[in-house]
């Protein structure tokens, strides 16, 4: 067996992918006869027939299909290497489209986007706030931000923002003076709770943890809303106990406008991830943002 030309191997994969010589030749900017000659040379070098040719179709033989299955990862790596080389010779330009949940837009991106735009002046960023789990590819986004339990298996995930976050419970001094201070999460069943309903219609369940003991409380109370601002305002007005991201309430807790409730039971969880589809060529604005996040985390 003679050592085959790499270009012939690439053309063989192109013919199989296109399903025929004519389409593959057009994509490669060459004649179908020249392409056919390259495949014959590859078959001669390997000493095996790789394609079944008929007047209507071109399909790989069993040996051809087996060879292509083994070669495809290597060919994709070669293609990615050339794309990386091209990306590194040019400054990233274009638009980065992100789909992120509201907490990320409010508390994570403001600390990242200005520095990113300064480093890459050729990149524009579009951010859509969305708490639902949409198909970012179908919706035309380059990447999204979600928490680990919501990530699809075929996505590449990169940490973004603080790695430790917490859900916290709090209430105004006026409410606690009037209704008492809960000592255990189950005490909340006798309290006025301010609940959150997601855009999907799902009710946000309150979850507490202490030394491995986990308690989940479905909020029952006078107010159920999808507006985080309304929840905070209602808690400040003494309407009940609120349960939300610590970032929303930290200034109010520090100023004493709200008081912590069941602080020993506040549950910590891992921060969000930027995620994008596992594809061979990543657009330069997205690649730049991923590199930027990795630099920030270093």
TrEMBL record:
Keywords: DNA-binding, Transcription, Transcription regulation. InterPro entries: LysR-type_TF_proteobact-type (IPR058163), LysR_HTH_N (IPR000847), LysR_subst-bd (IPR005119), WH-like_DNA-bd_sf (IPR036388), WH_DNA-bd_sf (IPR036390). Residues 1-61 form the HTH lysR-type domain. One of its GO terms (molecular function) is DNA binding. Belongs to the LysR transcriptional regulatory family. This is Transcriptional regulator, LysR family. It comes from Pseudoxanthomonas wuyuanensis.
């Amino acid at each position: 067996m003679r050592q085959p030309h790499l270009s012939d191997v690439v053309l063989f994969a192109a013919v199989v992918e296109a399903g025929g010589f004519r389409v593959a030749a057009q994509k490669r900017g060459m004649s179908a006869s020249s392409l056919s000659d390259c495949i014959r040379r590859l078959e001669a070098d390997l000493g095996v027939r790789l394609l079944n040719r008929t007047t209507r179709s071109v399909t790989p033989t069993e040996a051809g299909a087996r060879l292509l299955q083994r070669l495809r990862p290597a060919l994709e790596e070669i293609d990615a290497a050339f794309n990386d080389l091209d990306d590194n010779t040019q400054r990233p330009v274009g638009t980065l489209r992100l789909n992120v949940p509201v907490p990320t837009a409010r508390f994570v991106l403001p600390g990242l986007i200005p520095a990113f735009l300064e480093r890459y002046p050729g990149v524009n960023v579009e951010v859509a706030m969305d708490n639902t789990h949409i198909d970012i590819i179908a919706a035309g986004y380059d990447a999204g931000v979600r928490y680990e339990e919501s990530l699809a298996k075929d996505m590449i995930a990169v940490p973004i923002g603080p790695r430790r976050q917490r859900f916290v419970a709090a209430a105004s001094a006026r409410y606690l003076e009037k209704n008492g201070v809960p000592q255990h999460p189950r005490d909340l069943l006798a309290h006025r709770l301010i609940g959150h309903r997601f855009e999907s219609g799902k009710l946000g369940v309150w979850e507490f943890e202490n030394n491995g003991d986990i308690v989940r409380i479905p909020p029952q109370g006078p107010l159920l809303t999808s507006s985080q601002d309304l929840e905070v305002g209602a808690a400040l007005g003494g309407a009940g106990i609120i349960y939300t991201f610590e970032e929303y309430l930290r200034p109010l807790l520090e100023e004493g406008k709200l008081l912590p409730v069941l602080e020993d039971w506040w549950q910590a969880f891992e921060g969000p991830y930027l995620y994008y589809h596992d594809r061979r060529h990543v657009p330069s604005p997205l690649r730049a943002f991923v590199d930027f996040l990795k630099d920030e985390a270093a």
